[in-house]
Amino acid sequence: MKQQSEPLGEFTTLEQPLTDERRERRITIGLPCGAAFGERRFPLTPEGVARLTEQHVTVRMERGAGSPIHYSDAAYARAGAEICSRADSLKADVVVSPAALRTGEASLLRRGTLLLTLLHAVIDRPDYARALLRAGVNVVAADLICHEGHRLVADILHEIDGCASISIASALLTDPIYGKGILLGGVTGIVPCEVTVLGSGMGAIAAAHNALGLGATVRMFDNDLYSLRTASRVLDHRAIASALHPHVLHSALRSADVIVATPTSSPLQLDSDIVGFMKRRALIFDLTCSPGTTFPSVPLIDLAAPDVSTLSAAEARVCYCNVGCRVPRTAAMALSNALTANVPALRDALGSIADIPAAMRPAMLMYWGKCVNPACADALGTRALDINLLTGN
Asked: Quick one: fold of 27-150+329-391?
């Protein structure tokens, strides 16, 4: 029997999947150059630009901003970036600048713009911090963003600094003119150099790992025994790990060829008497957040400074800081990975206060003209407002 067809014009309504309009919103990221301010670590590679473009992100980049990491404007343009003036790069939804901007440039940022920077770039410049407050800019310290209990960007930068310090130390020691002309690691019949690492965090582990790989003898000190135990296990117990007992520490510093100071559980300061017993040509690297505080009597050399071209293991002791700026391309690739992976979090942070991800809230320094971070408030001589009071959590 022939079946009767359904009447024309009658349709069955089917459920359609909802799209998240907010997450598909196209945002603009601005990238000003920081080389003129001693910051060579540009936070994005051309490959990173291509990945951001795929995520509906428009990238505006200041002309020549990629030159410190040896990428041309043409390489970024081919990847999808818009090459523009510095002022135009600051007119974006999100501005990424590891270096501090000029104080007057804070007014070029739109009110509510999300400025992704580093903590020290803000708290070391109170005048700049006040200008950002007046402009109503939402400031996030990338090195305070947490992920599963870890500070992702901070760990990345610390690891790069730790590796770079040993690479620079090795180059200085082997240089026959400006250095000692010796190997960091020993050969048969010759005792290897000694490396003393203060701290047991990510930077300390990276420095110790590289020094051990080159054959050096490594001693690690920290009063956080849990962190010290973890570092020792990561290093397969090849480093000599000890608490900060004064006698043991002073003995290690006397014989050390390289000293790497990283953040410790409690602030550590070594006075001039202790420094006086150290080797005359010992190499000192300060990887802490406040360079110069661990060895206050030793002159500080900023490796990010444009005029520092030739390094030497001088007779007079010096302390090197900002060693990561000596390997800016490695830092750029690492920061590019972190930035492209956090685009959804940046979109959320551009919404209401309730949309700010929990991992980003501890990293907020300022929110719509209010200081919401204790360290930033201390630098400004004011009180911090708890951001959780604004969110209602």
From this structure: Rossmann fold (3.40.50)
